[in-house]
Amino acid sequence: MKHFIDSDDPCCPVIGLEDEYAPGFTDEEHSHGRAQLLYASSGVMSVVVEAASFVIPPQRALWIPAGIAHEVGCRGHVSLRTLYFDRSVHDFGEGHCRVIEVSDFLRALIVEVAHFGAKYDMDAREGRIIRLLQEEIAAMPNAPYHVPMPRDPRLLRVCRAILQDPSDQRDLDEWAKIAGMGRRTFTRLFKQETGMGVAMWRQQVRLMEALSLLASGSPVTTVAFDVGYESPSAFTAMFHRAFGVPPSQYRVR
Fold first, then answer.
1. Which ranges in 140-231 belong to alpha helices (H)?
2. Interval 42-70 mean pLDDT
3. Are residues 165 and 110 in the same domain?
4. Higher pLDDT, 20 or 88
């Protein structure tokens, strides 16, 4: 991905970037001197930070504080419209990454600001839009769909494989082998570092992936198979238990 050259020019508190990325593109771990609102007007991104993994469809954006190392992957073609905020702007994540719901109005503001470039007049129209943009970000609710990431590199190897392919059907013994551990040590350490068992963690990944696929307009049947369920009915039952509504109703919402 193209990266904005970090600066804290006081006349430009928010600077936008727009670009297009091909399916499967991965931007290796990096960080910025400015906070970032990572947003794709189309396409789905996966983002991994030290403590968590997120999936970001066009209905959400991810606030990444300055200095936080992150890796970004493109599930399909991605139209990036992302913004960088200098230190004079309020930290909308209070020092943490935060998934933000994106309304149609906020989306329009993000897309408009992405066109401003690196220099504009804060006392003119652009400045008024920047101030409105900040008000809208602050007003948006959180979308708390993420999974905790372990620190142990052996467990990270397993988690990254599951994130890359949530439909992977390998069992506990196979995952323990990939981690280079015995089954008992693997399950104990995994729960210790993530707060949940491997099966529950994988289910959370599948739910997160399913929400993003549904938000992007994929049919329920396609989503069910893409996230590893043997039938749409099994997927629907799991989804209903987790969210209180069937996936078809979630997609309408």
1. 153-164, 172-179, 183-194, 198-215, 220-226
2. 88
3. no
4. 20
Q: Given CA atoms 232, 234, 238, 244 in this order, what sign does their dihedral have?
A: positive
Strand 14-21 relative to strand 146-148, pairing: unpaired
Residue matched to tokens 């109005």: 105
Greatest C-alpha distance within the chain:
64
Q: What is the pLDDT of residue 141?
A: 84
How many domains are there within the chain? 2
25 within domain boundaries: yes
Helices 125-139 and 104-113: crossing angle in degrees, nearest 10, is 140
**DSSP summary character for residue 20:** E
pLDDT at residue 63 greater than cutoff 90: yes
Going by C-alpha positions, the residue among 77, 72, 84 that lies closest to residue 113 is 84
What six digits make up the tokens of 159? 């988690």
pTM beyond 0.85, yes or no = no
Q: Which residue has the tokens 């804060």?
A: 122
3-state secondary structure of 57: coil
Question: How many distinct helices (H) and strands (E) make up the chain?
Answer: 9, 11
Reported as a single tens digit per residue, the pLDDT across 158-184 is 998 998 888 999 999 999 999 999 999
Is the pLDDT at 128 greater than 90? The verdict is yes
Q: Which domain holds residue 193?
A: 150-252
66 in Cβ contact with 87 (< 8 Å): yes
- 117 and 174 both lie in a single domain: no
- Residue 5 in any domain: the answer is no
